[in-house]
Specification:
Number of domains of chain B: 4
Strand content of chain B: 15-25%
Number of helices of chain B: 20
Structural class of chain B: alpha/beta
Distance between the termini of chain B: 12 Å
Shape of chain A: globular
Number of strands of chain B: 23
CATH topology of chain A: Rossmann fold
Helix content of chain A: 25-40%
Radius of gyration of chain B: 26 Å
CATH topology of the largest domain in chain B: Pyruvate-ferredoxin Oxidoreductase, domain 3
CATH class of chain A: Alpha Beta
Strand order of the largest sheet of chain A: 2-1-3-4-6-5-8-7
Helix content of chain B: 25-40%
Number of helices of chain A: 10
Strand order of the largest sheet of chain B: 6-5-4-1-3-2-14-7
Number of strands of chain A: 8
Largest sheet of chain B: 8 strands, mixed
CATH class of the largest domain in chain B: Alpha Beta
CATH superfamily of chain A: Thiamin diphosphate (ThDP)-binding fold, Pyr/PP domains
CATH architecture of chain A: 3-Layer(aba) Sandwich
CATH superfamily of the largest domain in chain B: Pyruvate-ferredoxin oxidoreductase, PFOR, domain III
CATH architecture of the largest domain in chain B: 3-Layer(aba) Sandwich
Oligomer: heterodimer
Order of helices and strands of chain A: HEEHEHHEHEHEHEHEHH
Largest sheet of chain A: 8 strands, mixed
Distance between the termini of chain A: 66 Å
Number of domains of chain A: 1
């Protein structure tokens, strides 16, 4: 499979963690043998949200914060497609916060890779929902004092289908988690730590190396209470699969149209005969 | 004040608190009247509450098709004491009021039918409604057997006991009514009948929803908001039969983005909402404009700003629909006037959206979606789904620059090409661009489609002579009310121009308007939004305005009066 765009002008700063995410994502879809024609990358707006332009596949680069609603219905009307969302922390947790909550509740079989660099890059250095306390920016001049958004804890509280975190400095772990997330049936969240070399001088690659650890086999990701504790850990932050909700039906599986028939909604035709009888039934015919 | 001829129809008003069961009487009454081969037209006016308040339903019964509300009340059935003060201005000496004289506490002349007392004597208070139903049906000289049979069918699922009690209650009312006719207390004109057994009875929401299904709609995503909710509710009710995806979104922002995603992947999708919800959708509307993604939006208007009057009507969101969304992109705004047109226009909306790759807005209002009357059944044999989705080849470019501005639309997974769309300005492949020359080409390409769209605009309909010196202009749900008023005035110098597409405007509109000596515009809003649009698009300034914005639709008499005043 060829996922290469050829010679293109990439808008990221040299050394940006997004390059790592892009490369790992390409390897993941390649190793999973996903045909680019059946792959749709969906994003909102931001530096991370440009990812779909750099990987040869179908793409829907929509509005800021609005990646999840179109992704949900793309999958719903044609479940044969693989849908992967690649967007940033501001897009998914700030502007799109409400959709984040409800997409988890809805549980479409899509994968959300959130490039979490704890800062706004495209708008040049303001705080993001995940910026840490005390983080000084041109707008948060006295440092961030809002409680940082904890996407993993929120996801576990909503009984999300698959919740993981990786950090792009750890390529092998990231590849492994991306692949598991893509293969997982249901909504899969991968919060991916990544450095912003231009606007976040605190949470650097080195910082991520020093402040994260990989979860070992003693953590049971199917235990929601221990998953919640894991999700709440910080300094150091745990990396790995935090939570997997056992045997949840996906949004598509819950849709009546797919209960006994796999034919995608896009290929369903108007039931003219039924429409005729529906109209006929409005005639209020005399009983007897 | 000009009087409208009343020999051809009888106007009945039922009033009571929410939760008193007016809807049940309305449902039974309209259907039984239709079974008696009488034309029926029902319109609701209700408060935004589940219990209490004071709601009314107006029902016109006639010997010919009816499509407009009237002020005149021939028969008034008040179920509680708040109804009479509220309807005072519509009650005349000719109005027959029948009800519980003691409970109504009024100086008006009321024919005493102590519904509650009769009901309790008979069984329990809940049968008051059914007694009232029987009373009305007797006063209209309908067939008691049809009534009993239909009541039997209606309550059939609730068991024999319920059926029997309701039939007996209706019969009790029927006998009371019969007595009033026999002793000469009440005498309504005889209504001639015509065979309308084949007609269907639906409301506006159903007409829109059925039209959408006939338009190939596979998916509806929405957030509940009166009066838009009826459409998704109806579609959910039939989603199994028609294999639809029906999803209640977390908000209107999600709803429209979902629908756009569905179209991108190859489905036909719609959203339904009202003004406040549409406000939230404007960002998505702009996205559809940029992505050149078809999407169908049903916007059921209610009075604003903000929450406004949630359960009342207005034509106040034409400018909202017209200007919503940042940036410049073409759109289509359709405004069906009747149940029949709501069906066919809603069907057509999907083909238009698909063909031109633009958002199509179906602009209705609370009045239209809640009106309920009989019409001949829809002819679906001629309807087609004109899908413009292509199978892509490996060199496919989603935004290929073409002469007419329309780039063939592919979908993911269908063909050898890849389909990329972007809310940023983009190149032909859908990738972000800041090439400013290309930007100009893309803007031109998107706007060019408007020229094409103008070729298939629903023409302005003229009712009356096209040589008339005076034209009355109206749009959407107001059209049939204006039509009846103009007809009743019987003035040969008066004709109506009725619009069912408000953007782009019909190309011949300017020509028609220029031929008139006088023009009057009738709109259910405070600022004559269509008048302003006509001025902008055609340079034609309409002389006079008749505007109403108290939350209620126009009535025939009101328009007869206002039009006469305006032309004299």
């Amino acid at each position: 499979m060829n996922y290469e765009m050829g010679k293109i002008d990439i808008a990221w700063c040299p050394g940006c963690g997004n390059f790592g995410i892009l490369n790992v994502l390409k390897r993941a879809v390649s190793e999973l043998n996903i045909d680019p024609h059946n792959l749709v990358l969906v994003s909102g707006i931001g530096q991370a949200a440009k990812t779909p332009h750099y990987l040869r596949a179908n793409f829907f680069n929509g509005l800021h914060g609005r990646a999840l609603p179109p992704a949900t219905l793309i999958k719903a009307v044609n479940p044969g497609l693989h849908v992967i969302i690649t967007s940033g922390d501001g897009d998914m947790y700030g502007e799109g916060g409400n959709h984040f909550i409800h997409a988890i509740r809805r549980n479409p079989d899509v994968t959300a890779i959130v490039h979490n660099n704890m800062v706004y890059g495209l708008t040049k250095g303001q705080a993001s929902p995940t910026s840490q306390l005390g983080f000084v920016t041109p707008i948060q001049v006295d440092g961030v004092f809002e409680e940082p958004f904890n996407p993993l804890a929120v996801a576990v509280s909503l009984n999300a289908s698959f919740v993981a975190r990786t950090s792009i400095h750890n390529l092998d772990l990231s590849l492994n988690i991306f692949k598991q997330a893509i293969q997982h049936k249901g909504f899969a969240l991968v919060d991916t730590f990544t450095p912003c070399i231009s606007f976040n001088k605190i949470n650097t690659r080195k910082w991520y190396e020093e402040n994260t650890y990989v979860i070992d086999g003693s953590h049971d990701p199917t235990n929601r209470n221990s998953a919640f504790s894991k999700a709440c850990e910080s300094y150091p932050w745990p990396l790995g699969i935090i939570y997997k909700s056992p045997a949840k039906l996906s949004f598509e599986e819950n849709l009546y149209i797919y209960k006994n028939n796999n034919k995608p909604a896009i290929n369903r035709e108007v039931q003219w005969d039924k429409l005729k009888s529906l109209i006929e039934n409005k005639k209020i015919l005399s009983p007897g | 004040m000009p009087q409208m001829p009343s020999s051809n129809d009888i106007s009945i008003v039922l009033g009571g608190e929410a939760g008193q069961g007016i809807q049940t009487i309305e449902q039974l009454l309209t259907k039984i009247l239709k079974l008696n081969n009488l034309h029926v037209f029902a319109t609701k006016e209700y408060m935004s509450r589940v219990r209490g308040g004071s709601n009314t339903t107006g029902i016109r019964v006639g010997s010919h098709p009816l499509q407009a509300p009237v002020d005149r009340i021939d028969l008034l059935i008040p179920l509680d004491k708040n109804v009479l003060p509220r309807l005072q201005h519509r009650i005349t000496e000719q109005t027959i009021i029948a009800g519980d004289r003691e409970a109504l506490k009024t100086d008006l002349n009321v024919i005493d039918i102590p519904l509650k007392k009769l009901s309790i004597e008979f069984s329990a208070e809940i049968y008051s409604n059914t007694i009232a139903l029987g009373l009305i049906l007797a006063l209209l000289k309908t067939d008691a057997l049809i009534m009993k049979k239909y009541i039997g069918k209606h309550f059939g699922e609730k068991g024999d006991k319920v059926v029997e009690l309701n039939i007996r209650a209706a019969d009790l009312g029927f006998k009371q009514g019969h007595k009033l006719i026999e002793n000469g207390t009440v005498s309504f004109p005889e209504l001639s009948i015509s065979d309308i057994q084949n007609d269907i009875m639906i409301n506006g929401s159903e007409a829109i929803a059925m039209g959408a299904i006939a338009g190939g709609c596979q998916c509806i995503t929405s957030y509940p908001m009166t009066p838009g909710t009826g459409v998704i509710t109806f579609m959910a009710g039939v989603e199994h039969d028609f294999e639809l995806i029906v999803e209640q979104a977390e908000d209107e922002i999600a709803a429209i983005n979902m629908a756009i995603g569905a179209w991108y992947a190859g489905a036909r999708a719609m959203v339904t909402t009202s003004g406040g919800g549409f406000d939230l959708m404007t960002e998505g509307l702009s996205l559809a404009g940029m992505l050149e993604m078809p999407v169908v939006i049903h916007l059921g208007q209610r009075p604003g700003p903000a929450t406004g009057l949630p359960t009342r009507t207005e034509q106040g969101d034409l400018e909202l629909a017209l200007y919503a969304g940042h940036g410049e992109f073409p759109r289509i705004i359709l405004a069906p006037e009747s149940l029949k047109d709501a069906f066919y226009i809603s069907q057509k909306a999907f083909n238009l959206a698909d063909k031109y790759q633009v958002p199509v807005i179906i602009l209705t209002d609370q009045y239209l979606v809640d009106t309920y009357y009989n019409i001949p059944p829809f002819d679906i044999n001629q309807l087609v789904i004109e899908s413009c989705v292509i199978e892509t080849d490996e060199n496919y470019l989603r935004y290929q620059l073409t002469n007419n501005g329309i780039s063939p639309r592919g979908i993911p997974g269908k063909g050898k090409g890849l389909v990329g769309v972007d809310s940023d300005e983009h190149d032909e492949a859908g990738h972000i661009t800041e090439d400013l020359e290309l930007r100009v080409k893309m803007v031109d390409k998107r706007l060019k489609k408007l020229t094409l769209i103008k070729e298939s605009v629903i023409p302005a309909q003229i009712y009356g002579s096209s040589d008339s010196p005076t034209f009355v202009i109206s749009w959407g749900s107001t059209n049939p009310i204006v039509r009846e008023a103009v007809t009743c005035l019987g003035n040969k110098d008066l004709a109506q121009i009725a619009l069912q597409q408000v953007y782009p405007l019909p190309g011949n509109l300017r020509h028609i308007l220029l031929s008139a000596k006088h023009t009057i515009i009738v709109e259910n809003n405070a600022t004559s939004q269509l008048g302003k649009l006509i001025l902008r698009e055609t340079g034609f300034q309409i002389d006079k305005k008749i505007l109403k914005y108290n939350g209620l639709p126009f009535t025939v008499e009101e328009l007869m009066h206002a039009i006469s005043e305006t032309i004299s």
